[in-house]
Amino acid sequence: MKETSISNKGRSGLGKFLIKYNTYIMLLVLIIICTSISTDFFTADNWINIGRQYSGTIIVCMGMLFVILTGGIDLSVGSIQALGSVMVAWVLTTQGWSMPLAILIPLAFGFGLGMVTGLLTAYAKMAPFIASLAMMTIARGLAFMISNGQPVATPENSIGQLGVGAVGGVLPYLVLLAAVVVVIFALLQRYTSFGRIVIAIGSNETAVRLAGISVKKQKMAVYAISGLCAALSGIIAASRTAIGTPIIGEGLELDAIAACVIGGASLAGGEGSCIKTVVGVLVLALISNIMNLLSVPSYPQDVIKGLIIIGSVLLQSFTAGRKEQSV
Asked: Please, which of 110, 122, 277, 306 could form a disulfide with 263 given CB 3.0 to 4.6 Å?
């Protein structure tokens, strides 16, 4: 009996460990697979390239995470990214305005569009899915209107310096920017009343409302922040490619949601981690890397992402069930 009890405890302990650190274990397994497939994978240059390529996605995921923490969802991030990239290129090329102004204008638009989504969700009682779907269409339409459906090239020696530059010739500006954004969001989530309220809304919105806190204002704020992050990622995209294009960002909302869920965020709200979300982005990046190394077309990659989301949600449901049984 005693040996059986110890054995059960051991299995239980291993199960808890695997559930708690599943995101990190998944990343480690993918790193091992990538390293075995390509000897060039585990090099500084490759990781720097991954950092550059996914810096914008990481920033979008920070905004998406806060929306998900409230129990909402934002489908407009890809379209707002496209609008941000087109707008920064258009302002620099056709208007000839200064760099700071060219950056501030798309950020303001992204913030404003996100705020409208928040207003529709919080005050008009529109479902987050419908409100953000409508904003997705509006933002994409604006991107095509501004660019006339064509890519807009950025002037030489302008925003492109952000995309190719590096601190000391080693640490890319984009990676540093993404790291700063992650730190800011992690501090917001853990050490500010705003972060605690956002989590509380997702856990028990009624209790937050009864405590006298304006749930509507908090929800509007997280959607505005998500729009801001999406616009910033658009500026980053324009800096990397030296063009603003209205067709980028298609499927970005799926990647952002997938990264958050892989990182342990609950789509029901109230649970999520900034650091684990970054790990979720890296998991998606390495899956894409493996698929490319194996010459797998893009469409099966989308299928795999969808299956990963399903698996992550099922794991969360299983974990929640285990917690309820232990109470």
From this structure: 277
Is there a domain that residue 99 lies in?
yes
The whole-model pTM stands at 0.90
**Number of folded domains in the chain?**
1
Best CA proximity match to 202, nearest among 79, 67, 295: 67
Say which residues have a Cβ less than 8 Å from residue 286's Cβ, sequence separation at least 6. 27, 30, 31, 33, 34
In a domain, 256, yes or no: no
Residues 53-78 pLDDT 10s: 999 999 999 999 999 999 999 999 99
Reference 213, options 224, 197, 202; nearest CA is 197
- Two tokens, residue 240: 């990397």
Q: Domain span at residue 145?
A: 53-248
Separation CA 258–CA 299 (nearest Å)? 16
Closest CA to 263 of 117, 57, 89, 123: 57
C-alpha 281/C-alpha 167 separation (Å) is: 23
